[in-house]
């Protein structure tokens, strides 16, 4: 529990979960809290350290999530996800990932994506679900039932509005604007417009003083894609020279466009390895210029290498007889920036007999593990996401099926091979201690081949009982 | 004597046509199947390397594409370098690719969400030039798109395989629509030969060369690829010319 000062009073500024259950609230005077729960433990609040921690968190989000990030004091971060969410598999997955990563380091967080900063601010703080994506155009109905605390207005205004009987944002939006503004000042009106997105609210992005940047300020605003591409090339050239001086290569590049209407547009690209190749970086950035809306024109272009790593020069071919390996890092980067890095992978074998556990995804540029699957039995080309139950006629106890029905079609089995017995991995889950699958490869009258199994515990399967499933399709 | 002279004249004419096309000599490099009966049917004695090929499963396999996938894997396994495999549905089982000769260390998978990004990745991969082969599981392939892909394959010198995989069996007719692919193959499964002991032998396919630029359509009875990705001619040899058996689905010997 944290205690801060407000004037001469000492009030609670943060309370823990058990304390909240005991009836303590943020904003309660310390004396009252002591009266309610005498044994509470308090710590003095340190707003300066909180702000510094928030800034560190912002820098982390800046490096990992999006090019435009700013602290939203006292307890939030604002991230402009435009042009960055696809790299994390969409908005929903990006938010879930962010919240989970914060939770892993002991920070309880809620996140929301909305059309406007104001709406996301209110939704993240006052909606129950930890992750919320508000679809475009539905901001009004989503924020209407939220309390007026979510409006980012001074506490006096909140108190004043409460006295007048306003409880939710929807209440305030429903009444005529002019009397409210007369009474509470222009800030309230501006916040209401900002939450609805009718006036823009630029995010002043946090800048890391250590990163390498290149900046171009235009006398006349520019807007044509060709012009943007030309200046992008120039900026990349400048940046690469700056990187070369420090012996670095870029891992993540942000290109920020300051528009004349003081809003920001951004492009973020990432690379799998540190790169200082001008052509490759220009190519990656130019690919995404089409996502930029120049509006009335762009005044400033800012290129920063948000993540940079030492770049060691390597000898390309070490001997004459060694086979030349084509470098595909460039291709991997181009594709990863188009569709997201998680969609690009290599599959490596895992030592497991259970088919669905026998592989794992690794990064496309990771070194070749050099192993392959040690199966002497043939494996199907297609593996169903989950085994589908089938109706089977089979001789007991251990014969392959004579016929089976899958997806409403009955097939006569002409030839079969099996069983191949696979035991459950008891060290993974207790339920698998007795689990057994007997796999059969069967061929129907038309020549199509399927991978079936009978599942159950060992006694059942050996006795010919157990349920049948279809797991894969051979060629 | 006269036949070989005629052959020389035809070869000379083909060379001159290629020069008009402006295609470099490396574009004519081919990847032989290692099966003389198939290689003889293909111009240049094998699959043209720097070009686009289409493969489709026959019958029920039009939806699952399992046999077609192994056929493509067998071809890709015999190229040199990394292979880019572009998927739309993540139901590919990698150990099967390894059993068809394509080691896991050689394949980079791309899960393209929609048709647009799939074609984009396909073209990017072909144009890059550093890959051995690019395989993409694609449902729709318009003439324009295939033309673009073919040009990209020529520019990058990479073998491209469009693995046509349809949502439903009825869509298979789309395979007959024009495209710029150099060859088109249909792979249909056939009942395998009974072994003298209980069990299943090597899978048997009816491999149809449906269309071939500067070549004739033909049907082949083949066996599924072995661990080196090589298909073999079926032991119960039944080579039929295009007049006899082409377009007949699931024909059995």
UniProtKB/TrEMBL annotation, chain B:
SUPFAM superfamilies the UniProt entry points to: P-loop containing nucleoside triphosphate hydrolases
Gene3D superfamilies: P-loop containing nucleotide triphosphate hydrolases (3.40.50.300)
Protein name in UniProt: Damage-inducible protein
């Amino acid at each position: 529990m944290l205690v801060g000062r407000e004037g001469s009073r000492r009030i609670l500024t943060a309370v823990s979960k058990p304390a909240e259950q005991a009836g303590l609230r943020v904003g309660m005077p310390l004396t009252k809290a002591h009266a309610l729960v005498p044994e509470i433990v308090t710590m003095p609040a340190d707003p300066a350290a909180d702000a510094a921690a928030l800034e560190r968190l912002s820098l982390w989000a800046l490096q990992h999530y999006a090019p435009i990030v700013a602290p939203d004091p006292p307890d939030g971060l604002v991230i402009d996800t435009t042009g960055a969410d696809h790299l994390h598999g969409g908005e929903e997955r990006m938010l879930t990932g962010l919240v989970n990563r914060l939770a892993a380091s002991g920070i309880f967080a809620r996140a929301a994506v909305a059309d406007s900063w104001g709406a996301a601010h209110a939704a993240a703080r006052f909606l129950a679900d930890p992750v919320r994506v508000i679809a475009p155009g539905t901001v009004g109905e989503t924020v209407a039932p939220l309390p007026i605390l979510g409006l980012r207005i001074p506490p006096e205004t909140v108190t004043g509005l409460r006295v007048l009987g306003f409880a939710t944002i929807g209440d305030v939006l429903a009444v005529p604007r002019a009397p409210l503004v007369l009474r509470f000042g222009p800030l309230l009106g501006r916040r209401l417009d900002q939450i609805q997105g009718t006036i823009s609210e630029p995010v002043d992005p946090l800048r890391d003083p250590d990163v390498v940047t290149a900046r171009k300020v235009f006398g006349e605003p520019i807007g044509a894609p060709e012009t943007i591409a030309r200046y992008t090339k120039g900026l990349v050239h400048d940046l690469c020279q700056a990187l070369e001086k420090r012996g670095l290569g870029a891992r993540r590049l942000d290109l920020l466009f300051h528009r004349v209407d003081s809003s920001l547009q951004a492009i973020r690209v990432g690379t799998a390895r540190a790169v200082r190749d001008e052509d490759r970086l220009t190519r990656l950035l130019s690919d995404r210029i089409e996502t930029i809306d120049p509006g009335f024109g762009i005044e400033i272009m800012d290129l920063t290498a948000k993540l940079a790593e030492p770049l060691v020069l390597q000898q390309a071919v070490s001997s004459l007889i060694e086979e030349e390996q084509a470098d595909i890092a460039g291709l991997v980067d181009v594709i990863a920036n188009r569709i997201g890095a998680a969609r690009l992978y290599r599959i490596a074998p895992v030592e497991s007999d259970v088919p669905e556990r026998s592989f794992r995804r690794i990064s496309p540029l990771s070194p070749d593990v050099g192993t392959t699957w040690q199966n002497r039995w043939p494996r199907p080309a297609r593996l169903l996401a989950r085994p589908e139950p089938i109706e089977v006629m089979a001789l007991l106890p251990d014969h392959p099926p004579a016929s089976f029905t899958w997806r409403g079609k009955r097939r006569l089995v002409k030839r079969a091979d099996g069983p191949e017995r696979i035991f459950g991995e008891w060290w993974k889950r207790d339920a698998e201690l007795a689990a057994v699958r007997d796999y059969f490869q069967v061929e129907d009258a038309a020549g199509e081949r399927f991978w079936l199994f009978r599942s159950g515990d060992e006694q059942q399967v050996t006795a010919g009982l157990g349920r049948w499933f279809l797991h894969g399709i051979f060629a | 004597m006269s036949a070989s002279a005629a052959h020389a004249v035809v070869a000379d004419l083909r060379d001159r046509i290629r020069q008009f096309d402006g295609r470099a000599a490396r574009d004519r490099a081919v990847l032989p199947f290692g099966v003389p009966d198939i290689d003889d049917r293909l111009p240049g004695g094998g699959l043209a390397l720097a070009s686009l090929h289409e493969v489709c499963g026959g019958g029920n396999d039009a939806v699952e594409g399992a046999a077609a996938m192994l056929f493509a894997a067998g071809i890709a396994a015999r190229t040199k370098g990394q292979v880019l495999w572009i998927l739309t549905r993540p139901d590919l089982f990698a150990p099967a690719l390894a059993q068809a000769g394509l080691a896991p260390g050689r394949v980079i998978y791309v899960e393209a969400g929609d048709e647009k990004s799939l074609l984009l990745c396909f073209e990017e991969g072909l144009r890059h030039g550093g890959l051995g082969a690019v395989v993409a599981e694609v449902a729709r392939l318009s003439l324009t798109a295939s033309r673009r892909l073919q040009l990209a394959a020529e520019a990058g010198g990479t073998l491209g395989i469009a693995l046509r995989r349809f949502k439903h069996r009825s869509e298979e007719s789309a395979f007959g629509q024009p495209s710029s692919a150099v060859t088109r193959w249909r792979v249909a499964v056939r009942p395998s030969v009974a072994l003298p002991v209980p069990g299943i032998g090597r899978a048997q396919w009816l491999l149809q060369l449906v269309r071939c630029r500067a070549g004739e359509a033909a049907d082949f009875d083949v066996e599924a690829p072995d661990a080196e990705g090589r298909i073999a001619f079926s032991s119960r040899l039944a080579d039929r010319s295009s007049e006899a058996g082409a377009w007949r689905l699931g024909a059995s010997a």
